[in-house]
Amino acid sequence: MPVVELSYERLEGLVSRGGGGTRVSRDEISEKLPYLGLDIEYDDGDAVRIEYSPNRPDYATDVGVSLALQGLLGVRMGPVPLDAAPPAPSGPDRIVARRQVAGVRPVITGIMARGGTLDDHMLRQLVTLQEDLHLGLGRGRKKVAIGLHDASKISGGFPLTYTAVSAGHRFVPLNETKEMTISQIIKGTKAGRAYGHLVAGHERFPAILDGGGNTVSLPPIINSAMTAVTTGTTDIFVDVTGVSQHAAEDALAIVAVTLRAAGFSLERIGIGGGRNRTPPLETRTIPVSVGRANEMLGLGLSVSDAASCLERCRLQPVPQDSSGGGQNDVIPCLVPPYRPDIVSEVDLVEEIALGYGTWRIRPVLSPSKTFGAYDAASVTHDAIDMALVGMGYVEALNPGLSNARILYEMAGRRTPPRSRMISAVDSKSREHSVLRDSLLPGLVENLSRNIHEEYPQKLYETGTVFLRGGRRAAGSSKRADDAPPVSERMHVAAVAAHTDSGFSEAKSVLQTVLGAAVSDASEIRTAPALHHMFADGRCAKVSIIIRDGAGGGRARGRRHVIGYAGEIDPAILSAYRIRVPAAGFEVSLPDVPPAAA
């Protein structure tokens, strides 16, 4: 999310301007900033650092934020008038796009901002706005690129020509002191290396030339040093080039309203050639139903109330008596061109919520005739957590995607054919390429990352494993006819590493866990077994027997193997450079009634 640092002192002046003498305080501004959808990262003295949504690039400057605050605080409501003077029919301020550039970067638009003043703070924020628009709306300058120029330094004057030039074309690029060819700029400057690929593959490159043939810009890469904007600039020429006319005009409108609110007067530039046009800077009409807004927001606003909310968001609802009839609760709303984020009725409902004041909306529980209860699986998991935490174990949270090295190679287990692994297609990381079918290898790998920490170390995890062929439990080879090709199963695993760790400890902890997890209508048994994770002769398989009256009618005495417990194989510990004994277990949580609370 983009971040910008603002000044409370500047915000106070900007918000209060045009408020009929009403002075807005810092406390009022600080209180309302979050209700514009802004997150305050820090607030220190005069500086406030805010994080804003990429779909509101106009919030990249204190000017843009102040316009929204004016509406929310009731200082000034309704849209900000752009008041851009139309171009003279045959005036000198115009841009002509040549045919040569049509196949490279065909779209160009622009505007002139005159009679303003820039301080260092505003200049830096304009550059921030420019780059935010490049990253978001401009898709890294591929779709749209913006140039800011000191109009008084365009030595050859207007009209400007948007054309294509050869790689040998020379000029002095921004932040450089000597002429360079376009080839040299692409290879030898930071901007060239970053954005040269956007026009690569073409024999000729887009360029804006002034009336004397001097280079103004090489879009989308870099401007000319000749027209660099400084704190002394009073007239700014803004050019926007790209491959989408709609996106270019949206970006231009956002820059234009920012300069207008900063004190500049706007003049539209006559633009022709290709399919380019003089920027219309027109409003769009989007209707919004007050009934739908009330339904979505849980409010009871009247049409006039909803219209006032839209005005506080700097929009312009059309009075009903001039809407030409239609539904009584539908408000046609004029959306200014600098709000491209508003595209549908739902967006206007959100604006109504912001204008109403989200701090005024109170949550109300929906009426219900039923009562909630804990899910049986949640009760079991909570009981396991309480038991293991009470015995000094710390919960680990490993990802469901592991890799063959941890699950097979380091676990002393034969690596199956790739067709038998449950692998991710086109995984972006070798470390996360195989769905785990066991928790214990991950816990032992966790221990290997803590070999420099004090012992004892006790870890546990309750999580999902993934089994191919729909096997119903660890150690079972049976599969139901309707079982899916891959099934999910909840397992719990634990491991303890310290000098006295052994089989007896693992078995004792397991009995405590299962005693908390299953009901008295079951019996837990262990028997000697072999398992790749455990040392020979120090391992047991764990079974559960369902007694009569439990388990959904299962037969008396039917045994289900649910997992294994024992001492971790010393060869595995040695491979992980773990120098103390470790013991643990892993079991599948059985489908039996949970223990009584």
Can you describe what's shown?
The chain has four domains: 3-72, 2-Layer Sandwich (Phenylalanyl-tRNA Synthetase, Chain B, domain 1), CATH 3.30.56.10; 95-272, 3-Layer(bba) Sandwich (Phenylalanyl-tRNA Synthetase, Chain B, domain 3), CATH 3.50.40.10; 284-360, Phenylalanyl-tRNA Synthetase, Chain B, domain 1 (2-Layer Sandwich), CATH 3.30.56; 376-588, BirA Bifunctional Protein, domain 2 (2-Layer Sandwich), CATH 3.30.930.10. The chain is 26% helix and 26% strand. It contains 15 helices and 27 strands. A seven-stranded mixed β-sheet has the order 19-22-23-27-26-25-24, with helices on both faces. Helix 8 (290-297) crosses helix 10 (345-356), helix 9 crosses helix 10 and helix 11 (376-390) packs antiparallel against helix 14 (503-517). The relative contact order is 0.09. Mean pLDDT is 87; it is low at 322-326, 471-477, 550-555 and 592-597.
Strand order of the largest sheet: 19-22-23-27-26-25-24
Largest sheet: 7 strands, mixed
Helix content: 25-40%
CATH fold description of the largest domain: BirA Bifunctional Protein, domain 2
User: What is the strand content?
Assistant: 25-35%
Q: Name the average pLDDT.
A: 87
CATH class of the largest domain: Alpha Beta
**So how many helices?**
15
Per CATH, which architecture of the largest domain? 2-Layer Sandwich
Helix/strand structural class: alpha+beta
